[in-house]
Amino acid sequence: SFFNSALDYELSVLRNYAVPLLRSVSPLSSEFAMATLLIDFLENFNPILPDKVPRFSLLREFIGGSGFSY
Predict the structure, then answer these.
(1) In degrees, to the nearest 5, what angle opens at C-alpha 26 toward C-alphas 23 and 30?
(2) What confidence tens digit (pLDDT) does each residue in 14-63 have?
């Protein structure tokens, strides 16, 4: 069995980080076609600003600002 911790709004938040990085892929790169496909996919989601994500959300472990301390 497994635990799916995905939240409905994750891709809308991650879009803010991923799209600029994907746009930086050179058209001469072998990864350009995949980057373009990912951009097209992510642009289907309305962006949600990271400050709307609760501090104790698991997503914060990936975008920073987590309320957890280790």
Answers:
(1) 110
(2) 999 999 999 999 999 999 999 999 999 999 999 999 999 999 999 999 99
Q: Give the torsion through C-alpha atoms of 24, 28, 34, 38, to 10 deg.
A: 30
For 5, 8, 38, 40, 67, the CA distances from 45, given in Å and listed in that order, are 19, 11, 12, 10, 26
> What's the rounded Cα separation, in Å, for the pair 61 and 64?
6
Q: Where does residue 66 rank: exposed (0-12), middle (13-18), buried (19+ CB within 10 A)?
A: middle
Output phi, psi for 19, to 5 deg. -60, -45
In the chain, what are the domain boundaries?
10-63
Q: Which two tokens stand for residue 48?
A: 């949600």
